[in-house]
What does this fold into?
Amino acid sequence: MSGHPKRVMIISFDAVGREDLPFLQTLPHFRAFLKDAALCPHVDSVYPSITYPAHTSVMTGRMPKNHGVVNNTKLQPARERADWIFQRKYIRSTALYDEARKKGMKTAALLWPVVGRSGIPYAVPEIMVTRRWQNQIIVNAVNGPIRYQLELNRRFGHLRDGIRQPALDDFIQACALYTVRKYAPDLFFLHLTDVDTNRHLYGVHHEKVTAALRRHDERLGELLEALSETGSMEETAVILLGDHYQKDVDRIAFVNAVFRKEGLLEVKDGRLKSWRAVAKNCDGSCYVYLHEKVRQDAKTGEAVMRLLRELADRRDFGIARIFTAAQAGALGADPSCFAMLEAKDGWYFLDEWETETKTVEEEQRHRMRATHGYLPEGEAYQTFFAASGCGIHPVTVERTVKLWDEGVTLAALLGLDLGNADGAVIGELLE
It folds into this structure.
């Protein structure tokens, strides 16, 4: 490399994939950016291909099994709504912002997953409130810089409508533009979720998704303008990336309903009382865990595996493949699970135990018409990585790269060291 950029802005467009690139290249700001950018159009996500493990792999250069964030939410089977894994303490390795801080770089992260209590001075952590008595603003305040967040809420809080889109991204976009102009961070992580939300609600190719992609184009243009106003673009690098893609779905499988029927878990008064085996969904995939009291019991393990294989043989149930713990670990997922299940096309998993299967239309609490979490295989499910500016060689990298390769590539661009990471630097795109 001839030199490191003084500023790097990393923008994650949640659930935007390789399949979106032809349309993005018709939009004015994406087209102009991609014209002079390095592009990796074949990026495999992590397994399970969901948001928190994916973003942590970008931040650490590691597979989920090695950075520790193996799901969006904790394994808390007795809770109606499990807590999200949003705090820095759950990451078992160093991260880009840790290493940047050591070099004296000023960092910012808006709605980026798993940065709660990370010490980033300009941060709005992505936090899903799961307790009835919690208040979103207060929970965010105690997990990030209080004065900064209060300042943003005072100025732009009127734009927000809970987590509804496009209001949420409109709020975060206003915060990002303000932060660039007032605080000029050296390293900025921005996570935008408009497309992800609309794909969940309406399906992969719905017109509302097209509208969300157009909004992203407008946001990109505004961000590039703010950067050009506040510093030399010759000393700036801008990164655009996706974390995963989505697939359309119309059926839901409830493994815990089968476990309950077989006596592997017990429910009383609508609450889980005890369990020997439990399913923990990742949307398009699903972990199966054994309780620590029976984890070493060969008979229980054999019975659970036999039951899972019977379910996989059923045409009316949504299991396509079963991975052992060792196989799951080899794919980068949690090796402490008992097994991991991959959904059939058109299916996803949920954790409730009332009924074995539902159509999407029958589901009320977690209805989705498209989702992610599936094994990252096949071009149609890939995402993308693009970079432009200082330190970047504009080239198209046709080989397949992994999300954790992006982490170590960003570290190399910044002159940072992530230590014993899993990724390999995408050397073609670095000057």
Notes: The first strand starts at residue 7 and ends at 13. The two ends are 5 Å apart (CA to CA). The chain has 14 helices and 19 strands.
